[in-house]
Every structure is written in C-alpha cells, then in structure tokens.
Design brief:
7-stranded mixed beta sheet, binds flavin-adenine dinucleotide, alpha+beta, D-Amino Acid Oxidase, Chain A, domain 2, globular, FAD/NAD(P)-binding domain, 3 domains, 18 strands, 3-stranded antiparallel beta sheet, about 375 residues, about 35% helix
Length: about 375
Amino acid sequence: MSGLSLAAHLAVADHRHPVVVVDDGSRPVEDGAWASWSAGAGMLDAAAHRWFDKIRVHAGGRTTVLPLGRYRYRVVRGRDLAEVVHRYTDPLPGFTRQRGHVDGFTDGGLVVDGRFVRARWVFDSVVGPGETPPLDAQLVFRGWRVSSERGVFDAEIPTLFDFRTSQTHGASFVYVLPEDTHHALVEHTAFVAPGAAQDETAQREALAEYLAEVAGATGYEVEREEHAVLPLCAAQPPRAHGHVLTIGARGGMLKASTGFAYQRVQRDSAAIAWSMSRHGHPFDLPRAPGRFPLLDSVLLDVVTREPVQLERAFAALFRFRTAEPALRFLDEETTLSQEMRLFAGMPAATYLAAARRRLTSSAGGASRATTSR
Ligand SMILES: Cc1cc2nc3c(=O)[nH]c(=O)nc-3n(C[C@H](O)[C@H](O)[C@H](O)COP(=O)(O)OP(=O)(O)OC[C@H]3O[C@@H](n4cnc5c(N)ncnc54)[C@H](O)[C@@H]3O)c2cc1C
C-alpha cells in the first residue's frame, strides 16, 4: 500500500528519475482494503469504493450516531488503489514494476532475488530498520465477511466501535463495516500487552455472540475470515539509513492508539515526494509534536493494564455533537487546550500514573543508551 501510494505521489511531484516498484507478491495488493477518515481531497481519492459521512459508536452504555463534521470515512480496495496508481505511473516510461523478493540493502542499491540493483534512493516497506523501539502493545483482530439472511446491517453507517463484547481477553470492541444490509465486515479488535497469549476460539466466540445477540443476525454465513496482529509502537522508529528511507507500517505509519495507517501513509507519501522535488533527497519530513507519541503510549499502558479503561476513554473522546474533535486529535492536529477539553472526564490519576511510568522508562532507556556509548 505504501509503495504504490508513494509511486503515485512521485509520479506527480518528481518524475525526473526512474522509479521501480518491487514486490514479491507474498501479500497481493488485490487482497487488501483500507478504511480511513480524511478532511479535504486526496490525490488517490478516485480509488475510494465507498464514502460515509456518519459513524455509529456504542460506549458507556449508549449508542450514538455521529456526523463526521469536516471529515469523511472511506474504504479503498486494493485493486482500485493499484488501478488509480497505475493511471499516474503507466504513462511515464521511467516508472516500472518488478516481481522480485528484496533480500536486503547494500551500498548504492539493494539486493533483489540475490542480484544487486543500483538505486540512488530506496523506500523500504518490507525489511525495516535494524533496531526498533520496544512495543507498547499489540492490536489483535479477527474479521468475518458475513452474509446474513436477514438485512440486519445499516448500509449507510459503519460502526467504529461497539463495546458490547467481553473484556476478558483484553480491551476489546467490535467494528462493523457494512457493504449493504445483508453483507458486512464484522471485526473483533483487542488491544493486548506485547507477547500476550491469543485465544482464537474466544475471538470467534465473541464474533458469533455479537452477531447473534447485538446485530440480531440469524442464518448468516462467514464468507471470509481475516486475522492479524499489528505491533503497536508509539515511538517513531529511526527511518533514514544512508540511502534507505523506511516507509509504511515499518516506517512508523501505524498510529499506535488506533492501528490505522492508510491516511498517514498518504500524508507521508506527499511529504516524501515534496522533499524529493525540492531538495533531491527524501529526508525533509515533518514530525508531529512529541506529546502525541507520549499520549499514545500512556493510553496503551492504561488499557493493557486495565482493559475497561478503553471504553471510558473512547466514550469521552466521542462525547461531542460530531466525531470531528476526536478524529482531529487522532490525526495529531489538535492544540493543547483542545486536548485538555477532550480529556476532561477521564480518570486523571490513572493516566498521570501511566505517564510517570512511561517517562521514567524512557528516561531509563536514554541513560542506559548514554552509559553504553
Ligand atoms: C488485515 C489488515 C487490515 C488492515 N486494515 C486497515 C484499515 O482498514 N485502515 C488502515 O488505515 N490500516 C489498516 N491496516 C494497517 C495498515 O494500513 C496495513 O498493514 C498496510 O497494508 C500497511 O502498508 P505497507 O505498505 O506498510 O505494507 P503492505 O501493504 O503489507 O505492503 C507490503 C508489500 O510488500 C510485499 N513484500 C513483503 N515482503 C517482501 C520482500 N521481502 N520483497 C519484496 N516484496 C515484499 C508484499 O507482497 C506487500 O505487497 C490493516 C492491516 C492488516 C494486516
């Protein structure tokens, strides 16, 4: 997803240099689909298959339908993303695709299927930096593409989170992305501590229970199952190594408190392409204020210790007339005073204790690093 997105942005901003997109086909883009929210137009918007302007949330014992304000929620399917990207890149003779397995990087290039390929710059979404910051949590999710005999889904409103599911196996909620009234992706999502044991059976039971008791689906068929464990790391990993820049999930684009990456990848791709066209290198990239990674790591610390706190936090963030304040915060575009307003009502002592733990552990890490030098 990030390689294709960047290729399209480079094709528009800086197509003086040849670009090769290398993929070994181990995870075909056609199998993927990404939901995300955004405000304003994006270069690859034509790839969106569905747009929504409301979401449903169920937290703190009540269901609310929230307009998205200046945001819209959209779903991009992998095949549509590839097609739209190729509309930008195919007319450019310097832009090509190569099927091949990247083995690693060397001075002046990379190794694909055992053979050296010269490259001035390498954008790496598959190998990653040698050293990564420690994980804060994992996002474990299992989704069923369900076909229901009865039309039980609301075709126009996705459910971003519904906490009517057991919290025994981690801070958990169910996400519902409808296709029409009979078909939806119903996903069980849990934030768990790094390395925590996963219980596939419990996750499937939770999905079946949600479908029967909350959604009211009877006689449904599970057409497809997807499952993933996303490593969540609030701190930004080092991205630049000589001529290699890490991109995508491995480049820190997964937002640690949500597991969403699509929209951050779009912003990052635009910034890389701008840096390339302006400076001839890809390293002049904006950085979000440091408090956002800290807030993410504090939230993950709290919810992995005390799972019920996730529902309270989301209920507080999404308690306004629209979802806009919460989405702006998750996009790391809020001011401090807006954040203070958002956090009012959350248990301050719990979060302050977690903040102290995080700050102490990062100070310990820094002094250890200093000692070892
Ligand atoms: C099941 C699932 C659902 C998700 N849903 C969403 C969502 O709805 N919204 C959202 O914002 N985020 C979502 N994410 C998180 C994130 O957006 C995705 O993981 C996203 O695909 C990350 O993009 P990427 O470019 O880093 O990696 P990928 O999209 O996985 O791309 C990596 C590519 O590299 C290829 N490859 C792998 N190893 C090699 C190698 N050694 N050599 C050559 N090629 C190689 C693969 O074939 C693949 O095409 C989801 C993640 C998962 C796992």
